[in-house]
Amino acid sequence: DATEQQRRAAEELAARVRAATARYADLRTALADGYGGSPRREGTDVHLEHQGHGRDGAVLDPERPEMLVYAVEGGRATLLGVVFVMERAGVAGPEPGGPITRWHAHNICLSVAPPGMGVVSPFGGCPAFSVAVLSPEMLHVWVVDNPGGPYAESLPPDWVREYHTTHGRPS
Questions:
Q1: Is the four-CA dihedral 132, 148, 82, 99 of positive or negative sign?
Q2: Where are the beta strands (DSSP E) in 67-124?
Q3: How far is CA 1 from CA 37, 63, 99, 101, 131, in A?
Q4: What global pTM score does this model have?
């Protein structure tokens, strides 16, 4: 259970992220500021990374999130949230909101053969000629009022589609 101080810290962080990233409601602004590189150009969870923010030493800085998450469909884009990412795997992220602001990591498989990246099987293994690695820890902060709250690991795709229909801006 979170303390009252942790709850306030989590609410304050979410509010600071919303305010600092409001300018990115326009996808063109995000692209002009250096966000990009996503192989997915459309969908309910398009992640745009800022290479410079990933190695700048800033941790949990609302002005400099490592990734922005959008819904992009039908010539429209909706900013959904940000992802803060630690610089190195195995280094724990700060949790100002205690259990509310828990970071997580992903087990992924890397290979020199296509597709290059995949997920670890339920049995803990990777396909032949690939290796399992643990990603750096990450924390999602959603800037939309979603059902799971600002720190949910993901958003329900159906909810995103409905929200995007009424809130998407021309991209």
A1: negative
A2: 67-73, 76-85, 107-111, 117-119
A3: 38, 29, 7, 12, 37
A4: 0.89
